[in-house]
Amino acid sequence: MEARAQEFGCSARDVYATLNMTNQSDFHSGTMGDFAHPGRCPSGEGPEMSTCPRAVFFDVDGVLVDSLPQHLQICRDKAVEFGLKLKIPTVDEFRQLVRRGTKVSPMRYFFLAVGFPEDYAARAVADYQREFIQRYRPKAFPGVSEMLKTLQAAELKLGLVTSNTRANVVPALGDAMQYFEESCLFFFDRYPEPKTKSWCLAEGARLLGVEPQACVYVGDQPADATAAREAGVRFLGVTYGWGISDDDKQYETAKSIIEISEKLIGLHAQV
Question: Strand, helix or coil at 8?
Fold first, then answer.
């Protein structure tokens, strides 16, 4: 990274600071401000450090972990087990549901979204919590560890804000868990009473001692963008996940794992 920065006559720290100086309207409008242009190294002037991006929080399913096929499969299996005559949607059909605003998390809403009656959805959730990671274990998308390492090297603090449980997330991410701040792992079961994603984002910023606008939330659903807005943090949507596509121009988006670091750091990072 330092070598790439020196090509433009500045330090890697300067490049990261360029990310920090990008304002929130740039991020949401899709222009990404000056940090999309690595030749524009900051002079040291600009917004106070309290308004600079310092941390990145990630959703997990559909962002870091490729788990949608497995989630749909457990729905099919439970429908058969319960004697429900349901047509579980394909991956593409499910993504369209999410794009239209269907609530699919936490998991109770996922089962409801694909047609489970309320009482059967409750049974399915209990089975999901016991069985999912053993029978359907998903894997992290290729390149996740390298991307997280790149962001950590850029001195960005990393956290998780997810509607899934620790027992499902940690085995799926494996060694990639080392890149996250322990205090900023917001699993669905972290608290006796589950918290909203917007609350977790605001709490993560507080625990890190940074302003909410100094954080970015990387998600894959319109609901994630809403949570980010409610918490006052920036949003970066991924188009390979559960419910955001290239056609959703209202979001700044990344089309791949590697593009997350490229968008956030502002250079074509070599991960």
Answer: coil
Tens-digit pLDDT profile for residues 85-109: 999 999 999 999 999 999 999 999 9
Domain boundaries, the chain: 2-63+139-265, 68-135
Which CATH number is 2-63+139-265 given? Answer: 3.40.50.1000
Asked whether the beta carbons of 181 and 159 are under 8 A apart, the reply is yes
Task: Determine if the pTM surpasses 0.85.
Answer: no
Token readout for 76 is 């099919």
Tokens of 44: 């040291």
The values of phi and psi at residue 201, to 5°, are -65, -45
Pairwise CA distance, residues 40 & 202, whole Å: 31
8 A C-beta contact, residue 19 and residue 35? yes
What is the C-alpha radius of gyration for the chain, rounded to an integer number of angstroms?
A: 19
Pairing of strands 215-219, 185-186: unpaired
* Cβ count within 10 A of residue 90: 11
- Buried-state track 15-29, b at ≥16 Cβ within 10 A, e below 16: bbbbbbbbbbebbbe
Q: How far does the chain reach from its first CA to its final CA, in angstroms? A: 10
Question: How far, in Å, CA of 61 to CA of 64, rounded?
Answer: 6
Summarize pLDDT for 234-259 with one digit per residue, the tens.
Answer: 999 999 999 999 999 999 999 999 99
